[in-house]
Amino acid sequence: MIRSGKATREQLRRHNRQLILRAIYTGLADSRAALAQETGLAKPTVSDVISELIAEGLIVEGGHGPVTDAGGKPPRLLEFVPDSRQVIGVSIKTDHVRGVLANLNGQVSAEHYAELGSAQGQDVIALLQQVINGLVAQLDAQLLCIGVGVSGNVNKEAGVVQHAPHFGWHNVPLARILSERYARPVYVASSTELAAMEQFMFGVPDTVQNLVTVLVNNRVGIGIVFEGGSYHNGSDIGCMQIIPWNPDPSIPQSAAGLEYLLGWSYIEQRAAVLRQRFPATRLPARELNYLHIRHAAANGDPAALLLQQELAGHLGYVFAWVVTLLRPDHVSLAGRIANLGEPLLTLAVARARELLHENAMEQVTFSLAESFNLVAVGAVAYTLQKELGLV
Amino acid sequence: MRNRRGSLGIITNNRHGVFQAEVLQGISEEARQAGYEIAVDSLAEDDRTPARAIALDPAAVAGLLVIANAASDDYLRRVHASGIPISLVSHQVPGTPVPAVLSNNSQGIGELVKHLVIRCKRHELVYIGGVAGQTDAVQRETAFQRELMRYNLHVPPERLLDGQFDPEIAASAVKKLVRSGAPFDAVLAADYLMAVSAIEELRASGIRVPQDVSVVGFGDAPKAEQAGLTTVAADITELGRRAARQLIGQIEGLEIGGVTVLSVELRVRASCGCHSGFHPQP
Predict the structure, then answer these.
(1) In terms of domains, do B194 and B90 share one?
(2) What value of ipTM does the predicted structure carry?
(3) Residue B82 located in a structural domain
(4) What is the CATH number of the domain that holds A154?
(5) pLDDT tens digit at each of 282 positions of chain B
(6) Are B10 and B221 a contacting pair, CB within 8 Å?
(7) Interface contact flag, A110 B262, Cβ < 8 Å
(8) Which residue, A46, A50, A361, B265, shows the most beta carbons closer than 10 Å to its own?
(9) Nearest to B246 among A113, A137, A299 (CB)
(10) Which residues span the domain enclosing B87?
């Protein structure tokens, strides 16, 4: 809400600054005259903002450009300085915290992670700060701001984590706590939204305008990007109940939540059942991971193939809902489940196709996002957008 | 004014080792810049001499850096519990929050295997491992095994060589493998020195690199570049610099837990065979 003339001037100044910075950053304009033309702002306004940005080190004056048709002195060219500031992006997952230190182009120079163990409540915040401290110690330039992705429900405008049951967090004002500690702006958003942002910025071709990222870890989230840059908050659909798809009679036929059916503890339980049925299976009884399942399935292991088919069946529901409801150009599958690779994706897409009519899937492409740093890098992109109007 | 902030204590098993010397250089540069002295306790002066006991008193320095596996995990736990700032370089103590700085071993091995399999079309891989139990060696071998599952490759035990981060040991393991007649078309070594020595040994045995066998290794240095080795560049001096920063951060009041990981970068040169458009026959 605009409350006073001062706030209006401040907002206008910030808006002009973002317009100009974005035009230089994206290469749309590289001189004061070109910026005035590109942004529609008056030349004195452009000059004032440029002086401010130069004083802050965010841009520098380079060489001279060609003389324009109007004649006069050749214009001084302006260049964005990506290393003038750094940002920290952090992802809080259920079992660990992972952060990245990046410059203003999103290039990562260091990562830091810490295991959460069984930490709850305040202890999670303490560990989060230890990770941020680990990156603060590595700063090569002034810290601009911090972005945090949380697996849970987030009010991003207020910077409050409304509900993150895994940590026992209810209405935690995370942005305020961290900005008081570090004296920098802090932005908090849901992991799912940030994963979609990372995918949109760095993971899919420029032609994709409407993107959905399905993030499957211990929760099942949907992050949405509409029309090339409008980001939805991200939805948690893990509690939706489905009747498990049944390629195998040993699967219980009662309805269960998606996050249960796609979660790791379910996979371990099913692997134990299938191990009894197929004693010669390659699935190890101890320290099973996604790559064991992928490898065993690739070698025709019947237990692994069944498990892969089941998971693909459950994911197929998610893909079918997403495609029917949202009509995206592209769907990316992210989270640890993506380690199951292309075979899982192909089966899940085939299952979704069975559930819908043929044409519904024709225009949609699918991919896997296998990066470890998806959410943390998404948090970097988000802070750059919020703080400087970039990306 | 010198030494106004005290000293960074450094414990290393051999200050002349290629890896340790580079780490020490990075630490010294960063310490000097931040106004700290360094006090090095090198437990041996070469790789062959058994390490003597640690002489450095942790209480006498502002903080402690321990390079690789120079001190026992018990010792590291004790120092950390006593509240003295401590950072580990290329080492981790399982189950404790002792902060550390590591190269991204898993990313690096992932890039090398992906490159060998996808770009160079190699599938019969040989792995030359480092010192058993040392963090970098363990993480690199674990990552290698994981990548084998990802690409559905099988590497029988005779193609998993023990190189102990020692070029001579690596060369003799490669010689033995060649003599055994076991088929292979690529070698991935856990460090660049072993990879360079593998190239020399293969060529001495009449095997062409990269036409017959692609060779890649972890880490980069002038020696790797001279040998035309495809590597992932892990800047060791930078690792030392970052470790010093982590320790200084703690000394100056930052509470840090967990591990700082430095990204590595794939550098494609001639030794893998896909450089400048050359594609070896399968």
Answers:
(1) no
(2) 0.88
(3) yes
(4) 3.30.420.40
(5) 444 679 999 999 999 998 999 999 999 999 999 999 999 999 988 878 888 999 999 999 999 999 998 999 999 999 999 999 999 999 998 878 899 999 999 999 999 999 999 999 999 999 999 999 888 999 999 999 999 999 999 999 999 999 999 999 999 999 999 999 999 999 999 999 999 999 999 999 999 999 999 999 999 888 999 999 999 998 899 999 999 999 999 999 999 999 999 989 999 999 999 865 444 444
(6) no
(7) yes
(8) A46
(9) A137
(10) 7-103+235-251
